[in-house]
Design brief:
The protein is an all-alpha fold and 166 residues long. The chain has one domain. It is 51% helix and 0% strand. α4 runs antiparallel to α5. The termini are far apart. Bound molecules: heme C. Heme C (HEC) binds next to α2, α4 and α5.
């Protein structure tokens, strides 16, 4: 009798193991970029670094490297969506977007572990879209933008939300 109980216990624990396997938790792909990650030192004096902001007609005071990159994301996504809707080939976005992990923000301490984790989550969504461009993967990218912007610099949240593919 005891043996039977033991066997039963073993079986249930085993089956819970199997259930665990067949029900994988949603994984966040980790962008494993050796040349551009949180520990990559930023080079002082490059365009967009503190004291060397990138001036433009839009912002004569100048923007950080990260700000300029963010605005290029907006353009990339508009372009990608237009092409996706037309069923045309879309240039991969990941190679450019991954640079967010080693770009100068306006406030250097904004580049911290929390930022980098969210950046990796965002970049996972970008890779998924690059592999399979469609409405749902596009909107996951927007979720990634929102996820970070809801935490830091909430500013363009409404604007980012307006980028959703309805
Ligand atoms: C991991 C965090 C993170 C993710 C993901 C992210 N952003 Fe940002 N974004 C920032 C930070 C931080 C700044 C402020 C940069 C600075 O001031 O140097 C910023 C700035 C911006 C700006 C303002 C640029 C300007 O004019 O100064 C826009 C617009 C923007 N992001 C849009 C987006 C969009 C669209 C996405 C998704 C495609 C996105 N962001 C994804 C953190 C993020």
């Amino acid at each position: 009798m005891r043996l039977l109980l033991l066997l039963l216990l073993l079986l249930t624990s085993l089956s819970s193991l199997f259930v665990g396997c067949s029900n994988p938790a949603p994984v966040t792909p980790v962008a494993d970029d050796v040349d551009c990650n949180l520990s990559t030192p930023l080079v002082p004096g490059v365009p967009g670094s503190p004291g060397h902001l990138i001036k433009s007609a839009r912002n004569p005071n100048g923007d950080s490297e990260l700000s300029v990159l963010m605005r290029s994301f907006v353009d990339d996504l508009r372009n990608a969506r237009t092409l996706a809707e037309a069923g045309e080939k879309i240039p991969a976005m990941y190679p450019r977007h991954r640079k967010m992990r080693c770009a100068w923000p306006t406030k250097p301490d904004e580049r911290n572990e929390r930022f980098d984790l969210r950046a990796q989550g965002y970049l996972g969504a970008v890779r998924a879209f690059d592999l399979e461009p469609k409405k749902s993967t596009y909107n996951s990218i927007i979720d990634g933008c929102v996820n970070c912007h809801a935490q830091s610099c909430g500013g363009p949240l409404d604007f980012i939300d307006s980028m959703r593919w309805q």
